[in-house]
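Colleagues,

For the teaching module next term, I've prepared a clean inverse folding example: a structure given as tokens, and then the sequence designed for it. I'd like students to try predicting residues themselves before seeing the answer, so please don't circulate the second half yet.
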């Protein structure tokens, strides 16, 4: 299941952090997010998603590895300031996946 979500996230790209990112939607297997820079398909990323924890004053960070499967538009464009990036999680701790799944289920309305 995929849920619309505007979560803060951090991405490490080539050893450099790309900050100020926000998800568009998320699932237990991947994330779709807006990026100010073009990220080519098949690029490996380190990702940290920040989940709100309504019962506590702190937030929960979910760390994972991923690979870009799609970027829209498909090529880098001059003077473009936003790209939509789809990323598949290649590695995520089972506890982190369970927390992410719980968050997603809480967002869905049936």
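(Answer key — instructors only)
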């Amino acid at each position: 299941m995929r849920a619309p979500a505007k979560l803060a996230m951090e991405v490490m790209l080539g050893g450099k952090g790309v900050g100020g990112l926000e998800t568009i939607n998320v699932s237990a297997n991947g994330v779709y997010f807006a990026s100010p820079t073009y990220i080519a398909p098949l690029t490996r990323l380190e990702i940290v998603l920040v989940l709100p924890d309504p019962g506590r004053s702190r937030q929960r960070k979910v760390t994972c590895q991923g690979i870009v499967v799609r970027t829209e538009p498909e090529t880098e464009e001059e003077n473009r300031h936003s790209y939509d990036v789809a990323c598949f999680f290649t590695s995520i701790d089972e506890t982190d996946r369970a927390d992410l799944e719980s968050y997603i289920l809480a967002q869905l309305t049936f």
